[in-house]
């Protein structure tokens, strides 16, 4: 099939590469000329395991190409995915300007019947707006469908190739059949294609993200209770998560959820529900807990060292909002590091892949970056951990203690056993567990 994917970010690139891999003829369009030039050289501007190989292979086979010409991409394709960003507007609602600009461009460019699919996460009712933009510019029939994306950054290629389910909100039998054909290679074993009406598909995406965010904030609230009572949230988590009705996922306490999706999607859902007169108080609470949780490590550091941090140096392990990605959008590390710098502290940071992102888009030379995570520790007053990268999980504790100026660790991901840390000579602060040492 001839497919266009408009927007070559995390989602657009994965969708484009995976659809090319199953034999489709894919053109990816983006307005960022620099990005497109790099992609055409086989250089992938984001870190996502497996993606670069997939793109290189499909470029070689000429099944994927990249262009800045949205009009040409639309003309060349029967199926068009809109995968541009939907960042939060000032009032928290999803900013649809990019989605609607693409819809307008599709309307202008259409020369034959098309199936247009919103892949971007968009509020319920957006497909209707997309249709209006297109139909006000052309008489040619268009199908407007919703196909929310559930991939996780860090495992995005795998998630797209082997989805738990594919949700398709369709407006016609014809669109349903064409999209079934497109997705069949990905659901050959156990997963299902769930066909539904378009508004239900639009809501499904927000409901799924809001549910996951709720579980995280819920456990962070329970962690606070554990801290106040001397209980251990890890025991509580296991006790709760082994209940088959609840399950273990997304119950880890920590420094709150970040990234490009949960924070903005919860905000946007609260906004949509408010506008339509639905009660969003549960989700407002989820967001309030998270706002506080993102600042937890900074609060702990200030409680321990005082408001004036001048003359103090902090080692930071982990900048990305989660492992296996260089994405730092809404990462908890941003809140801690800005707070440390504002109070006069110095920061030496390590992340296996996000240091370039941190330097280019967030901190420039205001913090120091080091090659190996042990290098960050040299004479530091404390170590602060934000991201549960595998390589931070079993470090050489003796080497750590010897390198640190003061053996103080603030662990926002509960990577280590508090008793073991105490025995190894650390003062160890974690989340929802007793502070030892
Ligand atoms: N990142 C994720 O994990 C994830 C997962 C599921 C869904 N989503 C949703 O998918 C959408 C895209 O997210 P992302 O993380 O890929 O965003 P991104 O910011 O990484 O990429 C968006 C791309 O769209 C391009 N763009 C903007 N306006 C354009 C236009 N008019 N024409 C062509 N290209 C244009 C930008 O240059 C950019 O390259 C969002 O709605 C997001 O909520 C993201």
Quickly list its features.
single chain, 437 residues, alpha/beta, 43% helix, binds nicotinamide-adenine-dinucleotide
List the helices and strands and how they pair.
Blueprint: E1 2-6, H1 10-21, E2 25-29, H2 33-40, H3 51-60, E3 64-67, H4 70-75, E4 79-82, H5 97-109, E5 114-118, H6 126-135, E6 142-146, H7 156-161, E7 165-169, H8 173-183, E8 192-196, H9 198-229, H10 233-241, H11 262-275, H12 281-293, H13 296-305, E9 313-317, H14 332-342, E10 346-350, H15 355-363, E11 368-369, E12 382-385, H16 397-403, E13 408-411, H17 418-423, E14 427-429
Parallel strand pairs: 1-2, 1-4, 2-3, 4-5, 5-6, 7-8, 9-10, 9-12, 10-11, 12-13, 13-14
Helix pairs in contact: 1-3, 5-6, 9-11, 9-12, 11-12
The site of nicotinamide-adenine-dinucleotide (NAD) has 27 residues, from helix 1 and helix 5.
């Amino acid at each position: 099939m001839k497919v266009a994917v408009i927007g070559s970010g995390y989602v657009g690139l994965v969708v484009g590469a995976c659809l090319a891999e199953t034999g489709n003829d894919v053109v990816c369009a983006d307005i960022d000329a620099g990005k497109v030039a790099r992609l055409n050289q086989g250089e992938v501007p984001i870190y996502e395991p497996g993606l670069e190989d997939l793109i290189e292979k499909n470029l070689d086979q000429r099944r994927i190409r990249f262009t800045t010409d949205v009009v040409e991409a639309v003309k060349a394709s029967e199926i068009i995915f809109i995968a541009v960003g939907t960042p939060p507007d000032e009032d928290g609602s999803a900013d649809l300007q990019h989605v609607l600009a693409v819809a307008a461009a599709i309307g202008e460019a259409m020369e034959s019947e098309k199936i247009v699919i919103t892949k971007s996460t968009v509020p319920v009712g957006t497909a209707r707006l997309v249709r209006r933009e297109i139909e006000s510019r052309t008489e040619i029939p268009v199908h407007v469908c919703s196909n929310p994306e559930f991939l996780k950054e860090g495992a995005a290629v795998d998630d797209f190739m082997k989805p738990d389910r594919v949700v398709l909100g369709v407006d016609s039998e014809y669109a349903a059949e064409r999209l079934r054909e497109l997705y069949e290679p990905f659901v050959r074993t156990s997963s299902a294609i769930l066909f539904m009406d378009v508004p239900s598909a639009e809501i499904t995406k927000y409901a799924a993200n809001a549910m996951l965010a709720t579980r995280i904030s819920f456990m962070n609230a329970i962690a606070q209770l554990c801290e106040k009572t001397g209980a251990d949230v890890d025991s509580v988590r296991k006790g709760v998560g082994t209940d088959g009705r609840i399950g273990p996922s997304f119950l880890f306490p920590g420094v709150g959820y970040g990234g490009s999706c949960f924070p903005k999607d919860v905000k946007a859902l609260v906004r949509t529900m408010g506008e339509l007169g639905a009660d969003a108080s549960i989700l407002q609470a989820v967001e309030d807990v998270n706002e506080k949780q993102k600042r937890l490590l900074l609060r702990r550091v200030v409680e321990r060292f005082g408001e004036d941090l001048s003359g103090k140096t902090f080692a930071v392990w982990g900048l990305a909002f989660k492992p296996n990605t260089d994405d730092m959008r809404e990462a908890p590390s941003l809140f801690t590091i800005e707070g440390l710098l504002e109070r006069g502290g110095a920061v030496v940071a390590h992340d296996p892949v996000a240091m370039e992102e941190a330097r280019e888009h967030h901190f420039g030379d205001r913090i120091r970056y080091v090659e190996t995570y042990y290098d960050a520790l040299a004479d530091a007053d404390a170590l602060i951990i934000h991201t549960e990268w595998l390589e931070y999980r079993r470090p050489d504790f003796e080497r750590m203690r010897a390198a640190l100026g003061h053996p103080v660790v603030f662990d926002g991901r509960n990577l280590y056993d508090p008793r073991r840390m105490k025995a190894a000579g650390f003062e160890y602060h974690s989340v929802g567990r007793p502070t030892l040492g």
